Amino acid sequence: MSLTLQTRSIPQVWRITILGVGASLPAAAVMNWLPNSESTIAGAVMIIGASVAGAIAAGRSTAPSAAGLRAGFLGGVIAVLTYVFTEALTATWSASRLAFFVFAGGVVLCISPVFGLVFGRVGGWVANTFAPQ
After folding, report:
1. Most exposed residue of 41, 42, 51, 58, measured as fewest CB within 10 angstroms of its CB?
2. Residues 6+ apart with CB under 8 A from 122
3. Within a 10 A sphere around the Cβ of 24, how many other Cβ atoms?
């Protein structure tokens, strides 16, 4: 009986998205060092990560908006998880507070991909306009 290994590769859009998100993390760290900085890692992923992913996607003939949308979604997930692990574990929970958190978390997860989509298209436009073909 022979075992066959099926290799499953990550789709190219997700690879580009992960690359853009990874590239935005050092930028987020630098922005947090600035005085009076109110930046967050999730915001950097939604804006810088989506822009970088869109620029890379434009260079590889992939849809920049798709890569940006996925980067925005990852930024929203990071934002919700950051809140859960920092604030939500220490708060006292009532039924109304829990309902508000579920509603607000849903709104964040629905709106953040829109930011990613917009900045992914901006990154793709910048790459197509200013990069040599």
Report:
1. 41
2. 51, 54
3. 26
